[in-house]
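RECORD TYPE: inverse folding
INPUT: structure tokens
STRUCTURE:
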């Protein structure tokens, strides 16, 4: 491959991507047609490309040949020969490697990289040689191509929306010698092409990585060809449209392995209703979480959602696997990649349905908690907070007497402050996340706002706690004044005691402790930006101790803190005095004064 890299660099100096792609694609077509590898004129080269035929994929081949002919129309013969001659000793399979490499540089900003995901998806799908396979969002390579390289007789159907990707996918497949391969171009949500006798063709396995959070094509939903979107109304994003399409494309005993981001696993609203319907229909077999940055174009974590219409003796259950284990992936310069150990371990845990602390658990469908997020079901064995690593004793944690946060406090949403509300003469002061530091509110920085609706539901009271729920999670502060004109902004919630049985200052210290931060992190969701929904916040667990003990602990802590702060101030003074003695040895104070 190093020689091929040198050839790519050499030919890149002659032409841009479209021309290089056209020349190499043309050579591949000529090779597939057993044409000579050297050409005396440009016309000879074009004719060798045009001589290739494939009646089964006539339209794709015709468009590919037209693209090659058009792109090379103004290229001079001697310039074309410089490229074709450079590749004359490269095999057809080598040419495809070149074509993929230059395409990755073009489409994926410097290259896409092997990350082990294709191999893992195939193993989780448990593909047999006689299985029919569908990838309805194929790209120009993926698990389907890996499978064809291993078994050119595998019955595989793919659909892809991008015409350029279709041409590359076609060439990739043909070079493997595929005989049972079918390829379609078009939007699979609006118009699935794998149709026979007016019915959607069904497959043993669907293995696919749909576009992440793509905007939904509403027209496709309205048409709803073949009643594919029957699990509920799909929201603004197309994730569950692709998932629903995959399920509708399975045979009665089929299995789908679908790569998804975190969002579809926890988002509420209509998305949550679809998830609940999938659980109720007992279609979800497993969810496997993987590290972030497994793709150069997507930094978000990836999960494998395993849909199985025939769960055998696993009916009524769901397995969760945390695949983000230190020894299971390696950090690359641009991306993370699964190691062979990671692929083998995840596959073994999945196929043998192994439960292991911090890694895997199995729940009954009845224990589903409105989310498929893996971390909501698997407690880690270790946790790092503020650069300190803690080991978690699961047994002692489960023994501890705890109650949910909503049994102790009301949870009040903040006011959505916009530029339109902010004014120098505003009647109210808005506290934002940035205004909280070290459990204190920087009152000098608060924005003045007006509230057009009834402000009373937003006004804060003495002993209310503020907690950040978006972005920088877990910032806390307490309101110490009576009759304030302060309100919390939308990325904060106010916690107000329901009774006199909770010391809010003690609660503040608990939420800002390593234990509280652990609870908050477990409740958080999100990909690029972490958030805590009100429902997840309500379920944060708080230790049960008497109000008297809360009062005593908080008071004792604060009294000791005052003494320790005083001693610390004295020590800092002594520390500086000691430095000054050193500096006096070269009379620094006569030159530099504080």
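DESIGNED SEQUENCE:
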């Amino acid at each position: 491959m190093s020689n091929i890299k040198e050839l790519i660099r050499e030919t890149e100096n002659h032409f841009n991507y479209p021309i290089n792609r056209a020349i190499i694609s043309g050579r591949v077509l000529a090779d597939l047609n057993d044409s000579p590898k050297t050409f005396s004129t440009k016309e000879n080269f074009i004719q060798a490309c045009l001589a290739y035929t494939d009646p089964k994929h006539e339209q794709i081949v015709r468009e590919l040949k037209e693209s090659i002919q058009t792109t090379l129309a103004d290229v001079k013969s001697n310039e074309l020969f410089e490229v074709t001659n450079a590749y004359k000793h490269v095999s057809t399979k080598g040419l495809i490697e070149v074509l993929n490499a230059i395409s990755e540089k073009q489409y994926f900003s410097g290259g896409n990289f092997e990350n082990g995901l294709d191999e893992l998806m195939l193993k989780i799908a448990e593909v047999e040689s006689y299985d029919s396979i569908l990838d309805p969002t194929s790209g120009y390579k993926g698990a389907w191509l890996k499978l064809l390289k291993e078994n050119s007789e595998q019955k595989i159907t793919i659909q892809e929306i991008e015409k350029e990707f279709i041409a590359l996918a076609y060439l990739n497949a043909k070079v493997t010698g595929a005989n049972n391969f079918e390829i379609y171009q078009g939007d699979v949500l609006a118009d699935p092409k794998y149709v026979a006798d007016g019915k959607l063709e069904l497959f043993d396995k669907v293995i696919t990585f749909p576009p992440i959070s793509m905007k939904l094509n509403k027209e496709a939903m309205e048409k709803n060809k073949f009643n594919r979107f029957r699990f509920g109304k799909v929201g603004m994003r197309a994730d569950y449209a692709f998932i629903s399409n995959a399920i509708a494309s399975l045979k009665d005993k089929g299995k789908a392995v679908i790569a998804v981001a975190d969002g579809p696993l926890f988002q509420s609203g209509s998305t949550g209703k679809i998830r609940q319907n999938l659980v109720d229909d007992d279609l979800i077999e497993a969810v496997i979480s993987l590290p972030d940055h497994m793709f150069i174009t997507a930094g978000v974590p990836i999960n494998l959602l395993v849909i199985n219409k025939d769960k055998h003796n696993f009916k009524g259950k769901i397995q969760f696997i945390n695949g983000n284990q230190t020894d299971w992936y390696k950090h690359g310069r641009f991306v993370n990649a699964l190691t062979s150990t990671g692929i083998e371990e995840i596959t073994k845990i999945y196929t043998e349905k192994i439960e292991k602390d911090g890694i895997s658990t199995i729940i009954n469908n009845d224990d589903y908690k409105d989310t498929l997020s893996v971390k909501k079901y698997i407690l880690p064995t270790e946790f790092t907070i503020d650069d300190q690593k803690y080991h978690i004793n699961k047994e002692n944690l489960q023994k501890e007497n705890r109650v949910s946060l909503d049994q102790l406090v009301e949870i009040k949403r903040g006011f959505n402050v916009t530029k339109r509300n902010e004014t120098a003469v505003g009647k109210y002061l808005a506290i934002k996340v940035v205004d909280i530091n070290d459990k204190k509110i920087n009152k000098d920085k608060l924005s003045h706002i007006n509230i057009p609706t009834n402000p009373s539901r937003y006004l804060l009271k003495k002993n209310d706690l503020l907690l950040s729920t978006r972005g920088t999670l877990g910032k806390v502060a307490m309101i110490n004044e009576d009759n304030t004109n302060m309100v919390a902004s939308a990325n904060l919630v106010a916690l107000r005691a329901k009774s006199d049985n909770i010391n809010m200052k003690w609660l503040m210290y608990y939420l800002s402790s390593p234990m509280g931060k652990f609870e908050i992190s477990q409740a958080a969701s999100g990909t690029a930006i972490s958030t805590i929904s009100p429902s997840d916040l309500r379920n944060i667990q708080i230790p049960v101790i008497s109000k008297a003990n809360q009062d005593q602990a908080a008071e004792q802590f604060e009294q000791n803190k005052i003494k320790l702060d005083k001693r610390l101030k004295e020590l800092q003074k002594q520390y500086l005095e000691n430095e000054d003695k050193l500096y006096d040895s070269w009379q620094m104070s006569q030159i530099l004064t504080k």
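NOTES: The CA atoms of residues 40 and 81 lie 9 Å apart.
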